[in-house]
Amino acid sequence: MSGRTHLIKMSVGSETVVGLAQWQADRLEMTGELVHPTRMTPKRAAEILEGGSIYWVFRKAIRARQRILDLRAEEDTDGKAYCAIVLDPELIEVENWPHRAFQGWRYLPEAKAPPDRGPVGTIDPAMPEEMARDLKDLGFL
């Protein structure tokens, strides 16, 4: 199988896209890059690094994504290996697609990824998704 592949992950610690954005902004200021550690290294790394993203699930729906810039093998302070998923700081809201809870991360094929709504903060959260989609199609968002 070739082509772009994404990852999907439950957001833990942040219950909203704005909450994740604020946490990540603080983290970026402290460390200079956004790294999400995970125990398992994706075997389909080449497909993910062809422009794949991590899609974040909040409250039973996929609601945002971030481009994956790199997948690095790292070790923690105890010498235990993990995969560092390096993320682009730009967090993009996507159309809310229902998704059940799960642990860890999963692969998400390009064909099953929800379409973008826009960068966090550019979409009024009270705006109905259908209206935002229509405005985006018309070039206003």
Descriptive report:
This protein is an alpha+beta fold. The chain has one domain (5-137). Helix content is 20%, strand content 39%. The chain is built from three helices and eight strands, in the order βαβαββββββα. The protein has helices at 17-31, 45-48, 129-137, and strands at residues 5-10, 34-38, 53-58, 61-75, 81-87, 92-98, 105-109, 116-119. Strands 1, 2, 3, 4, 5, 6, 7 and 8 form an eight-stranded mixed beta sheet that branches. A hairpin with a 2-residue loop joins β3 and β4 (61-75). The longest helix has 15 residues, at 17-31. The protein is globular and about 50 Å long. The termini are far apart. 21% of the residues are buried. The model has no long low-confidence stretch (mean pLDDT 87).
Question: What does this entry show, briefly?
Answer:
With 141 residues, the chain is α+β, with helices and mostly antiparallel strands. It contains three helices and eight strands; from the N terminus they run E-H-E-H-E-E-E-E-E-E-H. Strands 1, 2, 3, 4, 5, 6, 7 and 8 form an eight-stranded mixed beta sheet that branches.
Could you name the key traits of this structure?
141 residues; alpha+beta; eight-stranded mixed β-sheet; 3 helices; 20% helix
Biggest sheet layout: 8 strands, mixed
Q: Average pLDDT, to the nearest integer?
A: 87
In what range is the share of β-strand residues? 35-45%
The low-confidence parts are none
Any idea how many domains? 1
Q: Give the overall form.
A: globular
Secondary structure tally, helices: 3
Number of strands: 8
Helix content: 10-25%
Sequence of secondary-structure elements: EHEHEEEEEEH
